[in-house]
Design goal:
This protein is of the alpha+beta class and 244 residues long. It contains 3 helices and 11 strands; from the N terminus they run H-E-E-E-E-E-E-E-E-E-H-E-E-H.
Length: 244
């Protein structure tokens, strides 16, 4: 073997050693990164904005993977955790779903039952009333056969607070409200299904009002405010107002 061949062999060996050293360096870097990042776990991200107190569904979130060490202890890793819950605050698009962003739907108390009615969005309820709120439920009767048996004096039109301080437990989606059978000429309007937790007698009042009142409206009671009525506040007629 001449000197040129020896130099070639030496250079080849040096190249192999350099390659092995580089490979070892890469493995070392990868091992260091893995030790710092750790294994990946499943998390969930909000697809699009979710309004507060909205009932949550699994399809509102997308599944992602991220390093476990970067995940906060409150991050949701099992999407079934949102079943039967509502958003406690506005969920913004791209936000990582956290357990403190959701709460259980308000439960019924002893002696209560759920009753839902459609409320015309034109009354201002849309977007303003949320689960957990207290509302006064108003019903207006025209005194001309609509709402007969309502107790209106001499057939006079009147407004009544049929249930003070009703507790809202769910607010549905805005939907089309079909005109009543005797009002087919009117165009369909937008309405929201509102579910209340009420005792039996109050639920009967609401059912009666939805069937026979000209309109049923809601008035939001201030947080911490009292819904108790003073004498004479439960009903209103224009004739009584004129005589005061």
């Amino acid at each position: 073997m001449n000197s040129r061949q020896r130099r070639g062999v030496i250079l080849l060996l040096l190249s192999v050693l350099c390659a092995l050293a580089a490979f070892a360096g890469v493995l070392s870097v990868i091992g260091d990164v893995n030790s710092k990042v750790g294994p990946e776990v499943t998390a969930y991200r909000v697809k699009s904005q979710v309004a507060p107190y909205t009932r949550l569904r699994a399809d509102q979130f997308e599944r992602i993977s991220m390093p476990e060490r970067w995940l906060s202890p409150s991050a949701v890793t099992d999407i079934s955790a949102v079943n039967g819950k509502i958003a406690v605050t506005e969920l913004r698009e791209g936000s990582l779903l956290q357990s403190d962003m959701v709460v259980d739907r308000p439960a019924l108390e002893e002696g209560e039952q759920e009753i839902a009615i459609m409320i015309d969005a034109a009354t201002g309820v849309a977007g303003k009333i949320t689960p957990g709120d207290r509302v006064n439920i108003f019903a207006t009767f025209d005194g001309e056969g609509r709402g007969s048996g309502s107790g209106s004096r001499s057939g006079a039109a009147e407004s009544r607070i049929i249930v003070p301080g009703a507790r809202v437990i769910d607010v549905g989606k805005l939907t089309a409200l079909e005109p009543r059978g005797d009002d087919r000429a009117a165009a369909a309007s937008q309405a929201v299904p509102i579910t209340f937790a009420l005792g039996t007698q109050d639920a009967q009042r609401v059912a009666y009002a939805e069937s026979f009142a000209v309109h049923v409206r809601l008035a939001l009671v201030a947080k911490g405010g009292s819904a108790d009525l003073r004498p004479g506040e439960g009903t209103y007629t224009l004739e009584e107002d004129r005589n005061r």
